[in-house]
Amino acid sequence: MGFSLLDFDRYLEKNFGGKKMNLTHSPSRALGGMVASAHPLASAAGADILKGGGNAFDAMVATVSTLNVVEPFMSSLAGLGVATCWISSEKRVRCLDFTPNVPFDFKSNVLTREDTMTGPSASGIPGNLAGWSELLDTYGRRKLPDVLSPAIRHARDGFPVSALYAHMAHTTASRACTPEWSRIYTNPSGKVCEGWVLKQPELAETFEGIASQGSSYLYDGALGKKIIDHLQELGGCMSIKDLRSVRPEWQEPVSAIYRGFAIHVPPPPAEAFQFLLTMRILEGFDLDKFDYLGIEHLDTVFRAIRLAAGVRIDNNNKSIEEIVELLTDRNIQPLRKRVADNQVIEGLTEQFGEQVTPQMAENKSHTTSISIADREGNMICLTQSLGSPWGSTVVIPGTGVCMNNFMYWGDLNPASPNHLVGGQRWAMCLSPSISLKDNQAVLALGTPGSYGIMQTQAQAFVHYADFGLNLRQAIEAPRARLFDGKEVVLESRVANKVTEELKRRGHDIKNPGPFTMQCGGMQAVSRDPFSGSLAGAADPRRDGVAIGV
Questions:
Q1: What is the pTM of this model?
Q2: How many CA atoms lie within 13 A of 428 on its CB side?
Q3: Contact 64, 149 (CB under 8 A)
Q4: Which helix (H) or strand (E) holds 93?
Q5: Distance between CA 4 and CA 11 in Å, rounded?
Q6: Which of 81, 204, 534, 536 is the most exposed place for a label (fewest CB within 10 A)?
Q7: Measured in Å, how far apart are the chain's first and last C-alpha atoms?
């Protein structure tokens, strides 16, 4: 990070009543609330709201808007996302989908894959701001000026960037970045090093406009006009009609039982059901009888993940009824038999008909996830994204707003179940989860990682539920990312003899080192159903921390 943990600990002591925060390998623990996000300043923003009497929904908007400032390569008000929420007063789980439709005038037949990666045609319609506002309006008790004030302050005053930021800026600079991107996110030399102070006065003014005028400032106001005018000037297809069409949608979740946990995730068109499929397959195996991180443990989990990914690819954009049917014993039993037959499993894990390499996936693995709980019992897991680092790299002049590149997550192939069609929904791999026990929310678990999201969740859940690791240990534990074919990128903290046996069983093992962001960047919060005690943990693969109040 761009500041030491000691410095940050002193900051927390000063701003949170002299309480010493635990930043060790044990989970952070508290009673009054917990915020786990991918950046210390964002977690502090949410914790400050909780400390001042706000609830989890208020804290979430403060956290995600601050991430727009301090983690701009992952977050933007012009991104999109999904939230899964336990509403304590209603005793139910609800999902909020703020992934808008494909732009009405999008023409997949005249665009290339590169067009959907970088530049004006890559951008999907902004959904994040609409989602944040809906959370606040429906369940929050604070107003926009209050919850946006940390984001405005950090944008105007600046903050020291982390080593991760410097790495992302360096790798992104090799793409076809706009002059506006370079002006804002790099220093005059065009380079960035850890500790450089990033100031974003134009973004501060944009957030001040939102605080004053609400989300209509984007969806039917001056900010929206600036965005559309610039994109169309560059040859993009997005229109004011697209912005006015944005409507966040409250949905009923899809759920499945695993080891007594009722895991809830967003319904279609979200692709989160892959996570549930994997857990339903694994429910048929006594994983706790295997050696932890041993051959049977990892082989079984990897095989289940690969089968579930194939089912997901074949069943994108199905109805919720069809997805529920996929989760029944009738459909799960053949998959369990396939896991147990010891025959090599090979297949796609990414998109329809596209062989994706780890190098290609590196440009797609950049999202951010936040988990929050409050003293009232509310719990939220929200995953939002720009797509690739800094999305399309198109920054709207005078606003500090960076546009997403979510068209890359759909398929141009008309034969795909996830074909991009103007004005229609398309499937996204976001999978924020809330798990219940005895009708109480006990775990919020989410991660970035593109199509590895559902893989990462399954592996961490096994560490937690089957092998009894605490929340921090379950997140830090070695993980893998499965790619198309037989390729498995496996962190090197697994024993060599296990790795060699996995190879013998047909897994094409690649070693990225002890930790890699290809395996996600998880944030989680748990609640003890008996005492109400909260635990929080953030993934060491990124810059995050969990802060309790």
A1: 0.92
A2: 32
A3: no
A4: strand 92-98
A5: 11
A6: 204
A7: 22
Q: Which residue has the tokens 């719990």?
A: 379
Distance, CA of 462 to CA of 304 (rounded, Å): 12
Q: Are 521 and 38 in contact (CB under 8 A)?
A: yes
Owner of token pair 């944030």: 523
